[in-house]
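Consider what follows.

. . .
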Amino acid sequence: MSGGSAGEGRVLRATVTRLRMDRPPERYPPLPVGVQLALLRCRNMPLHYYRYLYDRVGRTWHWTAALMLSDAELAERLSSSRTDIHVLYMDGAPAGFFELRLLNEGECRLVHFGLMAHAIGRGLGRWFLGEAIRAAWAHNPRLVSVETCTLDHPAALGLYQKMGFEPVWRKEETVRELSSRERAAVLMRE
């Protein structure tokens, strides 16, 4: 890791692993009991709400890429027929989201998946990932893929593998953290 100049976030190193699943699971995890949950597919998502979800789910794990998109780029992505976003609500409040992207090669990629801090440790992860996988296969792709890295939740890679994903490659990358000033500026947009 190396630090940046004043006002810039640190540069972090990460090992990225791409995984894939060639057929749907035979079974999906059951809905957790004792917690009120709603999983809703979101159409016409406002940019500010997407940025809020992305930041609240990904801040701890150094997610920055979508925050760096311009309003026009993000609006194009969110309105694309190839993008499918589902938001998890727990006790009526947002608790996480997943984003799927349909790729040209008959591949459905789980682009983003995660829970907000208040929902982690509540026994939701396995069920929620199962719902993301179910939604991906509902698009009838040839395969479903996902990428995770060593900056993500420590259990992420193992959970993907337990759910049936198999690693296909690894590579080293760097990510630049957003400074507090940069993050605040992004989140103040639309």
Summary: Residues 1-7 have pLDDT under 50 and may be disordered. The beta strands are 11-21, 37-42, 83-90, 93-103, 107-115, 143-149, 166-176. The chain has one domain: 11-187.
